[in-house]
Structure formats: C-alpha cells, structure tokens
Amino acid sequence: MVSYHPDLDRIPVEDVLAALGNPVRLFIVRELASSAQPRTCGSLPVSVTKATATHHWRVLRESGITRERRDGRTKVVELRRAELDERFPGLLGPILDATAPRE
Amino acid sequence: MVSYHPDLDRIPVEDVLAALGNPVRLFIVRELASSAQPRTCGSLPVSVTKATATHHWRVLRESGITRERRDGRTKVVELRRAELDERFPGLLGPILDATAPRE
DNA sequence: ACGAGAGTACGACATACTTCATACATTCTA
DNA sequence: TAGAATGTATGAAGTATGTCGTACTCTCGT
C-alpha cells in the first residue's frame, strides 16, 4: 500500500518548503500536527477527491514530512515531527503557527 | 521599473513557502540575508539568464519577501526581513540555517 | 546624441503540478 | 464468500512553472 520513506538527511529544505507551499497539503499537515494521535487518511477533511488526496499524501511522504503505514483497511498518516525538528530545527513550528492573511 | 510590493498581512504563508521552495530563489534569499547591505540584482551570482532571473525576482517580490527600488541603472533588492519576522515570527531563520542534504 | 550597461516584456517551449473519473486492489465484516 | 470500506493506479485535462532568446526601455557617461 505504501513504501518509500526517504532519509531526511537527504532532503533539501527546498523540497519541504515546496511541499508545504500548497494549501491542501499545509492543511493536512496542520491537522496532523494538531492531533495527538496519528490519523487515518479518511479522517482528514480535505476538499478534494480521494484520488487527489492520494497524490498529496504521496508528495508529503516523499518529501519526508509524513510517515504512512497500513492498518487494516485504512492508512495511518503521521507527521515525522521529531525527525523534522532534528533535520530542520525550528522550521515546523513557525509554519504551523503562521496566521491567516487579513481579509 | 518596479512597483508592486504587497502588504505582508495579506500574504498567506503558503505563498512564502512556495516562493522559497525553489533552489534559485532560496539561493538569492540567502545571498541577500548574508550581506549587510542591499544588493543590486546584477551582483547576485545566479546560474540562470537575466530573463529568468527577472522572473524569480518578481516571484520573490510578489510574495512579499523582497523589496526592490531603482538606483540609477541598477535595481537594488533587499530582504523585507523585519516585516517578514513580524508577519511570520521565527520562520525565516530556520530556513536560512537549514543545512544542505548529505551527499 | 550615441553607445554601453542593467534590467524588463514578450513569446515560446518543455516540464511539472493539480485535479478528476474510472477501474482496480486489499481488507474487514456479515 | 459476497459486499462494503479504504485507498491506489492510470490516464486525461487544464493550469502553472521554469527556462530561454530576442527585442525593448531606461539611465549613465562620453
């Protein structure tokens, strides 16, 4: 169901920024960050079809941001928070904390 | 020569991340951040043609990251560092400090 | 006024991204 | 074992991005 999880040491920061520079993916990451437990893909209220969501999950996984594993019928996704914080200290927090634009 | 500098309050963080999620632009931003003085466009050792560089400068400007002004024949570019730090506290530092991938 | 320097505008092109519909695979449950 | 639930693969369409060459504008020096 899922496989490739890159070594974060080999990920350039540009790739992480590009991955997070998409509203759907940033939303997903914020959902993941705000829940104590890992989430199943289906439990994330995204605004796109399943097929599109699969695409975005792959981008997040391949850029080292998330980890996926199968659990029965569902796929569980979680942030690689500790690894990211070690690879890119201080990066994730400010992104998650960023406020919405005015208006 | 130049004009549009958006109000940072209206910029979503995704736009900043997407702008920085490109190697050429991240390189430019790092150059700007590492020099005490503002730089002229021509003084930045980018690996693309002038026309392409113009494109990247526009992206940086329109995402609120840089400010440009004309100075004689040259264009001076500078980071909107203080404004960015106020709008997205703690965001820029970790990006600038991120290390290159292993290998 | 002329030419050189610095950057822009425009058009073209290839590639990548985002999105979807449809068909498929896998696993649970009745 | 059949059907439902969950997600993937594939292919297509439309849009956006990154890149360049060329022609242009604006400014400075001579």
Automatic annotation (TrEMBL), chains A, B:
Domain of life: Bacteria
InterPro entries: ArsR-like_HTH, HTH_ArsR_DNA-bd_dom, HTH_MetalResp_TranReg, WH-like_DNA-bd_sf, WH_DNA-bd_sf
HTH arsR-type domain segment(s): 5-99
A Pfam family: HTH_20
Keywords annotated in UniProt: DNA-binding, Transcription, Transcription regulation
Keyword NADP: no
UniProt-listed PROSITE patterns: HTH_ARSR_2 (PS50987)
UniProt-listed PANTHER family: TRANSCRIPTIONAL REGULATOR, ARSR FAMILY (PTHR33154), TRANSCRIPTIONAL REGULATORY PROTEIN (PTHR33154:SF12)
Name assigned to this protein: Helix-turn-helix transcriptional regulator
